[in-house]
Input
Amino acid sequence: MGKSLAIILPFLLAGIFTVPPAFGQTDEADRDSEAATTSEPVAGTTKTDTSSATKPLGRPRIGLALGGGGSRGAAHVGVLKVLKEENIPIDLVVGTSIGSVVGGYYAAGTPINQIEQLFINDRFTKEFTPLPYVRVATEPLELMLRVVGYKPYDGLYRGWKFKGYVRKTLSDKNIEQLKMPYGAVVTDVVTGESCRLTSGDIAVAMAASTAVPGLKKPVQIGPRLYCDGGLINNVPVNHAREMGADFVIAVDIDEKLKDMPLDKFRGLGSMARQALKIQLATFDSQNSKTADVYIHPDTTGISLVSFKKSDGQTGIEAGIAAARAAMPELKKKLSTMGIALKPGSNPQ
Output
């Protein structure tokens, strides 16, 4: 099952950069609680959150920007482990796609070892893409229903199971109830703006931020329609700044571009996968220049949607290694800003 999806998925994902998402008339099920979530556009604006991020701390405010990358999100957990071990204070978190999921659980105060289980137990993949063969098999039926006037938004999954899982594990929390300011980065399907969801149902916010075009249906919130934030802003450093961060730690979990034999591009789906890598690397390189510290774990070989439990552990270990390598630079920069970190202290 995982192998087949790994072949199909690159075509879907590579296509999102060149094919505009199609959408038609929505049914009421697409609206339900989504209307309770509000968003802030970023492109061309200077609007800042009116949240606890504006309250004085007596020191520079540190923000965490977590990038998208599907199952590679396990690397975020490894980074969080090291930040906790080193007592690095985090005052706000903003995430794109899987970064919004890991960041949302972290902002809710979920212990890191519990977030880790999302990847160790393969829970994220199971909740995100339930029964892929069954869904693909029923797609012809939905196409037939469209002929008679049924026009849901385009995509294989609505994300109901995923939202239900998040609501259950986070006790139906709204973003305003989290322990720190949080933003889920999304893309406005109509305007192409990069926006962040900063209030309302956190399950809806995560569903919108992870709505990969072609794979998951976009999420309507009030009069606006959103899809995966990684479409144009995969490592949301600018959102962290606009939420009030003076210092931004960014985590990029995309695969790094590496030299490889040309024969590698003879395989089915190989060009689509490489095209996606190139496009994401181009977007990410721009964000790397604006972050104060940029952590880039080596996630080579981990699929965007992986059903291999071993990939969860591999990703976590990659995050730990990258965060430890970045720690001397991070501590030095924090020290120059007047933030002294002592072993065993808890500055948060």
